[in-house]
Write a structure and sequence with these properties.
The complex is a heterodimer of chains A (264) and B (183).
Chain A (H helix, E strand, L loop, with lengths): L2 H10 L8 H8 L2 H18 L8 H22 L7 H8 L3 H14 L11 H6 L5 H15 L4 H23 L7 H20 L4 H28 L2 H24 L5
Helix pairs in contact in A: 1-3, 4-5, 4-6, 6-8, 6-10, 8-9, 9-10, 9-11, 9-12, 10-12, 11-12
Chain B lengths: L3 H11 L3 H23 L2 H18 L9 H19 L18 H20 L2 H11 L5 H8 L3 H19 L9
The chains are: A mainly alpha (264), B mainly alpha (183).
Chain lengths: 264, 183
């Protein structure tokens, strides 16, 4: 074996610390290859011993806390009266697990501004009880649906429902003075609209568009009206968030109308 | 290597036992977070992705076949989450935060060690993502080439090639640095 093939063999080994007999034989008489091997082993050790990055202890704690709470909700769901509608009961089943959704879902947003002070994570907010767990519950259920790889029509429907939940939650939060979660929910609504609902609508085929989009456009129009009414009664800071929500709905409606070939 | 204890956790978690799932979370959280942090170079994104991975694992755990390689499977989920997140977020990579305050080996050794760590981290950062992902799974997580192939949806030969390339590039960049200090 020459030095080149020995070097390549070392680089390709699963464990360079245990070379083949042929390579070992070469190493005995070649100081250059021994030095290369020493460097490779040192590299392995250095990479291995890189310190674990500092973790936010709350992230895992929140996740585990929510997991624990899920058990309680599951038990509650199991003992729910039979009159509860199946979908609703399933929502209850997922109640706290839904919280798990908010972290990754809102992570889409929060991960973007790493230079800015990070707002309290919604997962933490939920854990401390400041966000309606039922809403989070529904969000999780939809997130799970999305994770299960649905066909595009069904995915679109999931985003429609998700957007409606977020709109309702935003309107609820708007009635609570000084809600820190409102801007976050509004931003998530914008993201769901942009990357979810409108993006997914573009993937619908023509018959699907004709079948599904008119109802959504109508709902978005109603959202605009609802939010405008809420703005009239809101404080300036809340009104700013709501205006942003209304603008998102208006923009999404216009884009969906364009997809249908309608004039905007 | 999947020990018996882990197999029991998986089976119980598949049957709906959240405590067993919590044990899996405890076992894999830091490892996934470290891997994702090295790949995303952003602590917040890595944290969100780690949560997302466990959310998906929890949602799909029933699809996992007992007796197959859970470690490779969970890193496969993480790899898919990372790919999805890179599609979603096209933001520039963030610089690695300093995490070098954890050791206290004495002033001179610490200085050398820290300097080497910094250089190694910087060189890792410059590695193409596909090589970095494979190398870290091999070196930090101890996955075999076969497991890396499963985790990253590659052939075993490609996994071996990526680790090979990563080592080759790093050695070329860091060569003399690796000669100094303690060997």
């Amino acid at each position: 074996m020459n030095c080149r093939s020995v070097y390549r063999s070392l680089l390709a080994l699963e464990s360079p610390a245990v070379p083949d007999p042929e390579v070992r034989e070469h190493l005995k008489g070649c100081s250059r290859c021994r030095r290369r091997r020493r460097r490779l082993l040192r590299l392995q050790r250095e990479v291995q011993s890189l310190p674990f990055p500092l973790e936010n202890p709350r992230a895992k704690a929140c996740f585990l806390q929510m997991l624990a709470r899920l058990q309680t909700h599951q038990a509650a769901a199991a003992s729910a009266p039979p009159s509860v509608r199946p979908t609703r009961r399933r929502l209850v089943t997922y109640a706290v697990a839904a919280v798990l959704l908010l972290a990754p879902a809102l992570g889409w947003l929060l991960g973007e501004k790493d230079d800015a002070p990070r707002p309290k994570k919604p997962a933490e907010a939920v854990a401390s009880g400041s966000v309606d767990p039922v809403v989070v519950d529904r969000l999780l259920e939809r997130h799970l649906h999305l994770a299960q790889g649905l066909p595009s029509g069904e995915r679109f429907q999931v985003f429609v429902e998700l957007a409606a939940e977020l709109r309702d939650e935003a309107l609820r939060l708007a009635r609570q003075p000084g809600s820190a979660e409102l801007p976050v929910v509004v931003r998530l609504y914008g993201r769901i609209m942009d990357e979810g609902l409108v993006g997914r609508a573009a993937h619908l085929n023509e018959p699907q568009r004709r079948q599904r989009l008119p109802a959504v456009i109508n709902e978005l129009r109603q959202t605009e009206n609802q939010v405008q009414r809420a703005i009239a009664e809101a404080s300036p800071s809340v009104a700013a968030s709501l205006r942003s929500l209304a603008a998102t709905a208006r923009d999404a409606r216009a884009r969906l109308q364009l997809l249908l070939g309608e004039k905007v | 290597v999947q020990d018996n204890e882990e197999q029991r956790w998986i089976q119980r978690a598949q049957a709906g036992d959240r405590d067993a799932f919590a044990s899996l979370v405890e076992r894999y959280w830091s490892r996934l977070y470290r891997w994702l942090q090295h790949l995303t170079r952003c602590t917040y994104t890595a944290e969100d992705l780690t949560q997302e991975v466990f959310l998906k694992v929890w949602g799909k755990l029933k699809l996992f076949q007992p007796g197959t390689n859970f470690r490779a499977w969970i890193f496969r989920v993480a790899s898919n989450c990372l790919i999805d997140s890179r599609r979603r977020i096209r933001s520039p990579a963030q610089a690695l935060p300093s995490t070098l305050g954890n050791h206290d080996p004495g002033p001179v050794a610490a200085l050398l060690s820290q300097e080497t760590h910094v250089l190694v981290e910087e060189a890792l950062e410059r590695l193409p993502l596909r090589f970095r992902a494979a190398l870290l799974l091999r070196v930090q997580e101890g996955l075999s080439f076969h497991e890396i192939a499963q985790a990253l949806a590659l052939t075993e030969e490609t996994a071996r090639w990526r680790v090979f390339k990563a080592r080759q590039i790093l050695l070329k960049e860091l060569g003399p640095v690796l000669d100094r200090g303690k060997a």
